[in-house]
Amino acid sequence: MRQIKLLLLAVCLLAAGSVMAAKQTKHTFAIANGNFIYDGKPIQIHSGEMHYARVPAPYWRHRMKMMKAMGLNAVATYIFWNHHETSPGVWDWTTGTHNLRQFIKTAGEEGLMVILRPGPYCCAEWEFGGYPWWLPKNKDLVIRTDNKPFLDSCRVYINQLANQVRDLQVTQGGPVIMVQAENEFGSYVAQRKDIPLETHKRYAAQIRQLLLNAGFSVPMFTSDGSWLFKGGAIEGALPTANGEGDIDKLKKVVNEYHGGVGPYMVAEFYPGWLSHWAEPFPRVSTESVVKQTKKYLDNGISFNYYMVHGGTNFGFSAGANYSNATNIQPDMTSYDYDAPISEAGWATPKYNALRDLIAKSVSYKVPEVPERIPVIAIPNITLGKSVDVMTMINTMKAVENDHPMTFEELNQGSGYVLYRRHFNQPISGLMRMKGLADYAVVYVNGEKKGELNKVFDKDSMEIDIPFNSTLDILVENMGRINYGARIVQSSKGITRPITIDDNEITGEWQMYPLPMASMPDTNRLPAGYKAGLPVLYSGSFNLDKVGDTFLDMVHWGKGIVFVNGINLGRYWKVGPQQTLYLPGCYLNKGKNDIVIFEQLNDKKQSSLSGVTVPVLDKVVK
Q1: Among this protein's residues, is 184 annotated catalytic?
Q2: I need a labelling partner for 434 at 20 to 30 A (CA). Which of 170, 328, 539, 602 fits?
Q3: pTM of structure
Q4: Of 85, 127, 268, 476, which is the active-site residue?
């Protein structure tokens, strides 16, 4: 009897397995005869870019349903190395937004093909272009070139990644159809003419080989401006063009580097554009995006909207650009990008217009648009406690050195460092901080004297330090360079000597690291407040229902906000972003805790509110 039961159980398990196999239909994908071939038939890829690291994991499926309802058949995503290697040798592939496998599986369940862009360099307005901040601490390591220590580090990352996604490739029954080798490397070749072209090409080829060695078996591609293929194209990878609207030019340059045939793809088609602090929010008209999309659809050109949904630079994940040899242009917390799907996942007029167009062009049925995730207002969040950060610092142990130490020398990646020096004799004059990276508030004897920052290229100010006085400089890392030749200049904090009246200030410097890696526990800190000094505000609020909201920061100065342990990112009064997106999935029914680190503290705050509409386009001069 027992044998019969075991036999019946085996039959049931086999049947269940057959059902599961039937549900997980295996597909094929190839590049052949000038086409993308899916299940043996030529297809046109209509893809949208969405970065899983920028969207709360509980919202991934909703955003993918939005993409499907727009008529898209694929999702592309960057994989940020530093999002997964959280400290040297420590990897996170499973928690929250780190769970890449779940992201890919969810895309497959929603009927989307997946395009992976693993870098190792990504750009994407992300901190250090995706590189871990500690790589340059190895003085023998040079990023993004034919350098053994760097390539050895890339090998470890790529092998780690492959272990997570190897079985999710279409060649093994998964939804991943293509993988990019390097990223926009042609731009870097053009920017780094000091490196021989053969060295550049040798490095890029090795990145492709590392991907192959790790077990990536799907077709590979590169992504560059059409005029940059000479430096960016890699033998064995399909060249695709970024932002190319001229179809004849696209076909000509792809043919030149791909044996005279396609397929032809614009791997970054921009329906919006990136945004920096202290600059107007850029807009791209719906009409121009619809017009260009129709050209691609009518001419069989595959495309990937960068971005279809931008999401948010939570925490300290935003990077920075630059426009000259010394300044920086920090990327905003919001990565809304003026994309068809807004930061909070809403269908915009651009989305609706593109959906109408694509639905008329494709042969498959386009589903209905999902309902918007509920939005709530939070009229009043009382901040019942303040903590004087300078008092808190006075209880900390300082790191002492003859000169100011960088964040990297302090083994700190992000956040803030307070630099302190006591002066036994008076000194006054012009204080120069040529090595400032990136933003500093200056105090003398506990009184704020001014601000310096590389956003406005201001690195000097008049200072008067009396006898027996203390100079404090609170320095913020606003994000490492993510694009261009200056990416190799990644050190943060104070990187060169400070001078006052042309006298170099050396000896007896004290550094107090404030990484703000987790939400400060103000319950363990004494209450206190002094106008003009950095302050922690904390409070709690209760909710009967949860939903997305936008914290109104228009009356605040500069800082970061934590809610229930989540760092929502930076705010800054200069705009254009004046609200912070707070996803409802980060809120609790019942009690919620909030902590705000306010750097400028020009006026005492007692409350803030959550509003139902974001403000992303208000620059304050």
Answers
A1: yes
A2: 602
A3: 0.95
A4: 268
